[in-house]
# Entry
Amino acid sequence: MIKSQSNEISLEALRLGDQAEFARLVDAYSGPIYRLGLRMLGNEQDAEDVLQNTFLSTLTHISGFEGRSSLSTWLYRIAANEALMLIRRRKPEVNLDDFGPGDSENDVTTLQFVDWSGLPESELLSEEGRKLLDQAIQSLPEALRMVFVLRDIEGVSIRETAEALGLTETNVKTRLLRARLNLREKLSTYYSERFIR
Amino acid sequence: MTNHSHLNCAALLGSISDYIDGELDPELCRELEKHLAGCENCRVVLNTTKRTIDLVHPSISQAALPDDVRERLFKRLNLEDYVKIRSE
# Structure
């Protein structure tokens, strides 16, 4: 979450080319944007490209930014576009509107009914568990992953996520539901095999 | 609660994400809670979905921006003069 810092950043100073203010902007937002790049592209080099391209684009366009959306929404929009452009370049076969297998907005499959929610965090987030969680997030179709990363990992609101991605709030909620249930299924398979008889 | 229909499960599970986020219409909310009271499978899906969301939060704090990535970023943006000043 980055809002507490973004509120203190002066858009006026940024528009006037104040370098110190731009450096503060970069420090406030670079962590979340780098993480978004990592989650979407899956490797550090591509995440760094997303990060650099996002701020280069910000620098170029800040004087024309009218403030119709918040600064954070605007930055997330640029970062999301940079990440999606890189995905298109890396994996041209990927359809960024696909929700994955069973590509229907109403098709939510739940097959695992083992309740692992009471297991201690030390077991759920062991080194192996953490690795699995990362892999499971990485395996989400891009269209779902982008929404999940913004909303559930970075804590961006539904409204802001919708604005940043050019989606309706209903679209965001649908994708979020599918992403969460998809991830839940994968984690359920893993945890029930390991910790529950 | 014993005579509820599992035909509703898929439809109601379509609302659990909104329910978790506190965005569900109050009437649907009551309907979902009534269903949950009598459907163990749906309770499991709700509990494990909530836990799934909880689990991704702690994992984010570990992925802070590495110093070398920050340095290269500041250099690329011609902000070398500010690289030693890290804003809190």
About this structure: Chain A touches chain B through 51 residues (CB under 8 Å).
